[in-house]
TrEMBL record:
Name of this chain's protein: Flagellum-specific ATP synthase
NCBIfam families hit by this protein: FliI_clade1, fliI_yscN
Source organism: Methylophilus rhizosphaerae
GO CC annotation terms, alphabetical: cytoplasm; type III protein secretion system complex
InterPro entries, A to Z: AAA+_ATPase, ATPase_a/bsu_AS, ATPase_alpha/beta_chains, ATPase_F1/V1/A1_a/bsu_nucl-bd, ATPase_T3SS_FliI/YscN, FliI_clade1, P-loop_NTPase, T3SS_ATPase_C
Length: 496
């Protein structure tokens, strides 16, 4: 009776069972939640496996017309400059680029021959997601259409290699050992941010070093007809220049000359620090355009690394002809001697990518060969190139026929940056030699027939006495290297 009436005993017996029930309830809820979570995880895993088995939806157009160099595709939307491919029935494919559109139809320019393309063949856009950067803090996204286009290998892994316009090795030395890629069209440099031309560049050719001094970041044109010796002169500059890297673009030349230029003219010494991009005449016009842009892109990458680059492009005329083929094929009207207006817009866009970079970066000193049809210096491409370049070196056929190599016509040639990077003594010596050379040529016929009387013209008397010495100074053997300092010393001796 006492225990039943004791309040302490009653309270304890009542509280203890209630506490056990409250402790067991959360444990049961947790177990139910874990089972529920496991069920959902298992269900989602099954869903992911099913999704992985599903083939992605393919967005494709189809070929409705092929006329000459142009293919017409419909049913797909792509930007100008976009890359696509057409699968062939034999397992291969034809890569192409969008060069225009007509209503809902795309105008495609193939990179290779269109053999095997059938009516209604599918057209797929080429994936570029693997070239997009990973999300990182402080790294701007690629907003430009050029940045989202196809990327090609660049960097130190290309040194000593020969590649085509798509970055595929042609030398049989295996794949390119580089992970760095870049689009064909680089960013435009603010003209106010460019470093000025303040230093000279030694190209190893005495006539150019002394009479047409080249500055780092200068862009010059090599104007010549066929068979005058421009390739040999380019090879001499490539072997003997003081530039850190040499990039050679062989655009539209004969395929036989590619190997000759590499083995005989460039040589192992020049190739070791060079990158050669070959797009010979037998490839499509699109690949010739792409080869010139790719060579410039490679040079831009080395310039960003702070290196001084020598870019040699042979030739700028073939680049213009390739653009003419494409423009006429898509219906652009011809303007000057069969060249459409887009040709004259493409030339400065390509040339202006070279030159000096921003302060702290490297430089691209560029030599562009310009073919003059019939040695006509008023050819529209030659005239346009002369206006946008920083100087021009003219090779004279009569000098080449007389055995005068390199056949540089110092009367018609000029370096627009020479007066900013050379001393007054150097400029005076070069000007005096050019005056003596020109005075002799103007009176050459009188001298040959004996009609000139010595003493009539004091400067002509000096020109006659120094004519052989001047010719010897301007000539140079292909295996001879003339450094800048030696060239200036010989110039002073000739005009003294």
């Amino acid at each position: 009776m006492t225990q039943l009436n004791d309040p302490a005993v009653d309270s304890n017996s009542a509280v203890e069972p209630q506490t056990d029930i409250q402790a067991a309830a959360p444990a049961a809820d947790t177990t139910r939640d874990n089972i529920h979570t496991l069920r959902w995880q298992s269900y989602l895993k099954d869903c992911r496996e099913i999704i992985n088995l599903v083939e992605p939806l393919e967005v494709a157009g189809r070929i409705v017309k092929v006329t000459g160099l142009v293919m017409v595709a419909t049913g797909i939307k792509m930007p100008i400059g976009g890359a696509c491919f057409i699968p062939l029935q034999d397992g291969g494919r034809v890569e192409a680029e969008v060069v225009g559109f007509d209503g809902e139809n795309l105008l495609l320019m193939p990179q290779t021959a269109v053999d095997g393309v059938v009516p209604g063949a599918k057209v797929f856009s080429m994936e570029v997601t693997d070239t997009l950067p990973k999300p990182q803090f402080g790294r701007p996204p690629r907003r430009r259409a050029q940045d989202r286009a196809r990327h090609f290998p660049v960097g130190d892994g290309l040194l000593g290699r020969v590649v085509d316009a798509a970055g595929v090795p042609l030398d049989g030395l295996g794949p390119i050992a580089t992970d760095v890629t870049a689009p064909l069209n680089g960013r435009v440099i603010n003209p106010l941010m460019r470093a000025p031309i303040e230093e000279t560049m030694d190209v190893g050719v005495r006539a150019i070093n002394a009479m047409l001094t080249v500055g780092r970041g200068q862009r010059l044109g090599l104007f010549a007809g066929s068979g005058v010796g421009k390739s040999v002169l380019l090879g001499m500059m490539a072997r003997y220049t003081t530039a850190d890297v040499i990039v050679v673009g062989l655009i539209g030349e004969r395929g036989r000359e590619v190997q000759e230029f590499i083995e005989q003219i460039l040589g192992p010494e020049g190739l070791a620090r060079s990158v050669v991009v070959a797009a010979p005449a037998d490839v499509s016009a699109l690949m010739r355009l792409q080869g010139a842009s790719y060579a410039t892109t490679i040079a831009e990458r080395f310039r960003q690394q702070g290196k001084n680059v020598l870019l040699i492009m042979d030739s700028l005329t073939r680049y213009a002809m390739a653009q003419r083929e494409i423009a006429l094929a898509i219906g652009e009207p011809p303007a000057t001697k069969g060249y459409p207006p887009s040709v004259f817009a493409k030339l400065p866009a390509l040339v202006e990518r070279t030159g000096n970079g921003a302060r702290g970066e490297g430089s691209i000193t560029a030599f562009y060969t310009v073919l003059t049809e019939g040695d006509d210096q008023q050819d529209p491409i030659a005239d346009s190139a002369r206006a946008i370049l920083d100087g021009h070196i003219v090779l004279n056929r009569s000098l080449a026929e007389a055995g005068h190599y390199p056949a540089i016509d110092i009367e018609q040639s000029i370096s627009r940056a020479m007066h900013n990077i050379t001393s007054k003594e150097h400029q005076q010596s070069a000007r005096l030699l050019k005056q003596l050379y020109s005075r002799y040529l103007r009176n050459q016929d009188l001298i040959a027939v004996g009609a000139y009387q010595p003493g009539s013209d004091p400067m002509l008397d000096v020109a006659i006495s120094k004519h052989d010495q001047i010719n010897q100074f301007l000539q140079q053997d292909i295996h001879e290297c003339a450094a800048m300092q030696d060239s200036l010393q010989q110039l002073s001796q000739v005009v003294s």
